[in-house]
Design goal:
Length: 199
Amino acid sequence: MLASNYSGFILEAGTDEAGRGCLCGPVVAAAVILPKDFTHPFLNDSKQLSEKKREELRPFIEENAIAFGVSFVWQEEVDQINVLQASITGMHRSIEMLKTQPEYIIVDGNKFRKYKEIPHETIVKGDAKYLSIAAASVLAKTYRDEYMAKIHLEFPMYNWAKNKGYPTKEHRNGIREFGATKYHRKTFKLLPDQVKLEL
């Protein structure tokens, strides 16, 4: 069972991101404030859920949350500020979008920058411990997957609809054959080191 609250504050926001380890596309972050009595039979860390379950959860979270926000940090910005800063910036932006200001913020992972004067705590594997972080992880993942499925139509040869931009063998083979697209992150190592030629 995931815990519903960490801080004791009623307006506690959980925040998380998706897409940090991808070779292309945005980092997507979400922040969610859930009511005290929020429950759902299978809400858990989005990585533990099937795509179908995540899709089912998204409208339920959006309808029942006190507030939620989702922000996209595009690949150009990821390249400019690096992926860790992009994750934190995305989380800040999604908190900014909450129509109710939180009294406390709980963050998935171990890195965060102070947001305004609101106290926060970073929690490693927080998406498997607290409902609001799990809810944020589901929103971040579903919004990002939806976007990747959309740009897949433009560049089907990388099969982003399936690999979502993660460095799978198939995605890397696509890069080898067709090169990088405008959606690829230029600062990421898109391919393992080139094989050295025998001299």
